[in-house]
Amino acid sequence: MFKTLRIAAAGVLAAGAAAAGTVAYVAPAAPVMVEEPASMGGSGMWLIPLIAIALIALAMSHNNSGS
């Protein structure tokens, strides 16, 4: 009888230990946001400095021809 009681107690302890691992909640990993550097390839941003240089050149040539 004591042998059966020991086996039953061992079974209860083993089942308790096995069930204890399933209670813990593991949060899913958050996705990492990687910011890509802005490219000036097809956006047309190269036009702004070009227009600025053209306006400066036009202003300088206009002032020199009037003197």
Overall description:
The protein is mainly α. It is 58% helix and 0% strand. The protein contains two helices and no strands. It has helices spanning 2-20, 47-66. It is rod-shaped, with a radius of gyration of 39 Å. The model has no long low-confidence stretch (mean pLDDT 74).
Unreliable parts: none
Report the strand count: 0
The SSE string, one letter per element, is: HH
Task: Give a quick account of the main beta sheet: strands, pairing sense, barrel closure.
Answer: none
The rough form would be described as rod-shaped
State the secondary-structure class: mainly alpha
Q: Work out the strand percent.
A: under 5%
Provide the residue-averaged pLDDT.
74
What separation lies between the terminal Cα atoms? 121 Å
Rg, nearest Å: 39 Å
Number of helical elements? 2
Helix content: 55-70%
